[in-house]
Amino acid sequence: xxxxxAVFLPVLALSALVGCGGKEQPDDAAATTTAEPAPExxxxxxxxxxxxxxxxxxxxxxxxxxxxxxxxPVAEAxxxxxxxxxxxEVILRLEDxxxxxxxxxxxxxxxxxxxxxxxxxxxxxxxxxxxxFEADVEAGRLVIQVCDED
Length: 150
Fold this sequence. Notes:
Blueprint (H helix, E strand, L loop, with lengths): L4 H16 L6 H4 L31 E2 L6 E5 L6 E4 L3 E8 L2 E8 L4 E7 L2 E8 L2 E10 L2 E8 L2
Parallel strand pairs: 1-3
Antiparallel strand pairs: 2-9, 3-4, 4-5, 6-7, 7-8, 8-9
């Protein structure tokens, strides 16, 4: 009995497909993704930190409390409103006559303010806790930092 080559063609094609299929990749190799590296942040209290790379600069106007006995730069808020950790709020403006400010403390915190035309120092205290909000005029712009003086 003689078979036509047309009969063998589908059998050969099927064999080739099965043979070329190869092994299935493991799940961890098949599901590769790329991730962007996390941005580096400077160490708390380092003097080379800028307002844009410090942990306290995540959101202008929101001023997180720095670590104990350290200071952090604060980004200038466009609206001049700074919420200082859980201690209170400072509204700060640079005008022709110098720095003007308004301070409000939250329950349990008290404030003391020392300011003149080119600097302002607001100290929030509660018991043994002290958070110091400092603003200076340098080259016509505000330079702000917050310090935890525990």
